[in-house]
Amino acid sequence: MLVIGSGAAGLTAAVTAERAGARVAVAAKGSLQSCNSAKAQGGIQAAFGEDDSPEQHAEDVWRSSHETADRSLVEVLTSEARPAIHWLEELGVEFTRSNGGYRLARCGGASRKRLLQVGDRTGHAITKALRDAWSAGGGTSFEHSPLRELEQTASGWRATCGDHVVDASTVVLAAGGRCFAEARARHELSTNHPGATGEVTQMALGLGAEARDLDALQYHPNGGAWPANMQGYSIPETTRAYGAILVNADGEEFVDSLAPRDVVSQAIFDEVEKGKGVETPDGRPAVWLDTTRIEPADAEVSLPYMLRRYRAAGIDPLAERILTYPVLHYQNGGLVIDADAETTLEGVYACGEIAGGTHGRNRMMGNSLLECVVFGRRAGRAAAEKARA
Ligand SMILES: Cc1cc2nc3c(=O)[nH]c(=O)nc-3n(C[C@H](O)[C@H](O)[C@H](O)COP(=O)(O)OP(=O)(O)OC[C@H]3O[C@@H](n4cnc5c(N)ncnc54)[C@H](O)[C@@H]3O)c2cc1C
Q: Of 56, 57, 74, 175, which is least packed with CB atoms within 10 Å of its CB?
């Protein structure tokens, strides 16, 4: 069995398949470490709060997607969230805790506090644990081996990955989204890793796979706008979860800072369009994120990396507001999958950002890492089983 991609989705599928008894190889475009998953800061959603439930979580996803998500995939996502978190803990991920339970934050579009965090480097912690688990097993890694060709054979699939030609009965596509390439084409900033270029989706489409909502790209409402070295940095949404608000040039709050992402981004675009934005010293549009409202104790626990980065650049977000503007961030749509993460091509699975349906046309924060783990586990199990059959 072959897995394309070494982000949270690919490594979850690979570790799961190997533990299910399959012979597994992972091919990645760069090193195993280089991926968007490792850059994720804010957190991962799961309904652990006393006032919360997987059904409530599913309802929030449905509303935030503006009723465009695939409800059967959403149900899988939210009902398997708690087991996914426990699985990550077994691999060694230590989620931040407070008052005897998980420290939970409320993210945009959520009706409850549901976001688990590992400080503000959640993706780093998850991908490190997954890499450790993968390296401890007996699978093969082909680093610096981008998938260049995929063709069907009598017994499965033949993939050309860099200099390697791999025959596999089943293939898991976990090559992420395309926002780095898209931003470059639009001459815009992106939060994404340079590997996020989307060619694997194109290959699958060329083979006849179905896709959905591919045109729906997500802007992260809070890209760093100034200082220059913070441009393209995604200011964690947890700043807003812990009290920061968006204000215009006159200091007026112009949007519910915890509304769904597309609503918040559009409100910022509109405010700037109305002439109520501010300009960065290098002439870019922006509004203020008033981070001075965050309690220092919350910031220390949940935003230490963000604070370090801004302070190193000469700005203390707890003492002064910071400049922000939406930045291209996430591919909402992708390859059509069923509940086992199989695409419309037999024996080809897809999980993580490359797959569509779970978020419809607008993803909630914290559901992407969750999707990687929930559907990565399902893809790994199903692909291993089919490979054995
Ligand atoms: C800055 C940032 C912050 C984020 N914060 C959060 C957050 O707090 N919570 C949350 O849930 N989500 C967050 N996200 C979104 C989330 O991190 C990603 O959507 C998710 O991790 C994608 O995982 P993935 O495994 O599908 O893809 P990736 O992690 O992007 O991995 C893709 C893999 O595929 C490989 N690849 C690409 N093309 C090829 C090819 N041709 N051949 C072989 N390999 C290839 C890459 O090298 C890489 O290994 C954030 C994203 C960014 C960029």
A: 56
pLDDT tens, residue by residue, 256-315: 999 988 999 999 999 999 999 999 999 999 999 999 999 999 999 999 999 999 999 999
Q: Is the CB of 234 under 6 A from ligand 1?
A: yes
Q: Which two tokens stand for residue 55?
A: 């059904």
Task: Pick the catalytic residue from 112, 114, 178, 261.
Answer: 261
What region does 262 belong to: left with phi over 0, alpha with psi -120 to 50, or beta? Answer: alpha
Verify whether ligand 1 is closer than 6 Å to residue 333 (CB atom). Answer: no
Residues 6+ apart with CB under 8 A from 64: 108, 109, 260, 261, 362, 363, 364
CA 103-110-366 angle, 5° bins: 60
Q: Is the dihedral of CA 311, 44, 367, 295 positive or negative?
A: negative
CA distance 194 to 192: 6
Query: What's the CA gap between 310 and 334, in Å, rounded?
Result: 34
Residue 210, phi-psi category: left (phi > 0), alpha (psi -120 to 50), beta (remainder): beta
